[in-house]
Amino acid sequence: MTTVGDGADNSVSRTPAWLDALPTGTAEARALVRSFLDRYEPAVPERTAVDVLLVVSELVTNAIRHAGGVTGFRISARSGVVEIAVRDASPRLPALKQHREDWLPGGYGWPLVHRLAEVTVTALGDGGKLIKALIRH
Which residues does residue 17 pair with via DSSP β-bridges, in sequence order? Predict the structure, then answer.
């Protein structure tokens, strides 16, 4: 189920806009975010949009693979900032994977998210956790 709320006319008021959704997979999340960013005014620079899509991919994939699935999703924007919020079903906080050999699969997404965004993780007890990633442009 996808619901959309976008505050006010962004081209006039520059107030925050958002998209709330419950994507069932990474491709759906990316498509929703791409559509949101394409419509947002003032336009988000393409380089920022690419970073946002990468962070969305990593956070949604991690929620599905390691945390019982996505239970909430929001993308929001305001002048100079895009925020991604992903809620999942697991109260376990993300952990860095330690590689003993070079180029083993897995474990690269979480550090990448931290390179591209300011990240906060809020434990919600038995209700899972909320991960927010803020990307400035």
Answer: 77
